[in-house]
Amino acid sequence: MFERFTKDARAVVKGAVEQAEKAVRRASTPSICCSRCSTARPAAARSH
Do residues 29 and 41 make contact, with C-beta atoms less than 8 angstroms apart? Predict the structure, then answer.
């Protein structure tokens, strides 16, 4: 029983770490605002 719980908990933590790493990669990758903009800028800086 304890071994199963440990295995399940490890899987949950591993999934959370993978999700966090993906979020960091998405946040640090600039994206093009729109077809009118030629510069890449984060979503928070978009004016339209």
Answer: no
